[in-house]
Amino acid sequence: MTADTLSLVGKVAIVTGSGRENGIGAAIARALARNGASVAIHHVSENSKDRAEKVAADISREFGFKTVVVQGAIEEQAMAEKIVRQTLKAFNASGIDILVNNAGIGLINPLMESTPQQLKHDFGVNVFGSIYLTQAVVGVGAMPKGGRIINIGTISSKQGPQGTPVYAAAKAAQDSLTASWAGELGPSRGITVNTIAPGPVPTDLSRVFLETPEGNPSPMLDTFYSMARAEARLGTPEDIADAVLLLTSEKSRWITAQWISVSGGITGTM
């Protein structure tokens, strides 16, 4: 009898925000490629181009599957469609099988310091970007039956944090989209949609939340440690990537519309 596997051989995936070698997106891309998928590595600016190309080259060299680097601001609908078209062309593919909406942004800004520019940017990337990429993958990308859409959220969307209310609100909006899209795309197209919600994971973008300017653990980090129910450690990008891998596989065919905390047991309060 053949052993069960999480094989993704023949699948084409886009992972947004995957151009930082130590980030969650890159770890997700590695996990998908390790199991056979061809993966598009996405980054936003010329400043991140070299890092994204290195992520792609390292994955191709290590796992032997083709990668492509795609660039663009996902909060622009035309750019989202361009990213999908570039991916299809690079892999000579008829459809996109997996979309991981990982790209995200958030600043530490309390209520009275939140600006119109910040609101537009946070909701643009976290909400509009997820909408535009999903539209493009389902439409232009002709996502087939059995397709998988994974939104990378955060446990903050259920906690109402005081330091990052706009980011948490944007991610809460993304959580709502997950449930709505699952109901729309499941019965009509056979596509599942889920949210993976990481707890604290040290990356370039999260360090400002987890450390003080002096490099000491932040009060927020101490709070997370006190709430964890698993090992006394932070999460790793690989912890998140392995959860995404499960949801992209055939084994997750009956899992949809779910918000799954991957945080060592930290749960929300709302």
Descriptive report:
The protein has helices spanning 24-34, 49-63, 77-91, 116-138, 165-189, 207-210, 219-227, 237-248; strands spanning 12-15, 38-43, 67-71, 98-101, 148-152, 192-198, 259-262. Helix 4 links the parallel strand 4 and strand 5 (148-152). It has one domain (12-201, 236-261): Rossmann fold, CATH 3.40.50. A seven-stranded parallel β-sheet has the order 3-2-1-4-5-6-7, with helices on both faces. With 270 residues, the protein is α/β, with parallel strands linked by helices. Helix 1 packs parallel to helix 2, helix 3 packs parallel to helix 4 (116-138) and helix 4 runs parallel beside helix 5 (165-189). The N and C termini lie far apart (45 Å). It contains eight helices and seven strands.
Which short descriptors sum up this protein?
single chain, alpha/beta, Rossmann fold, 7-stranded parallel β-sheet
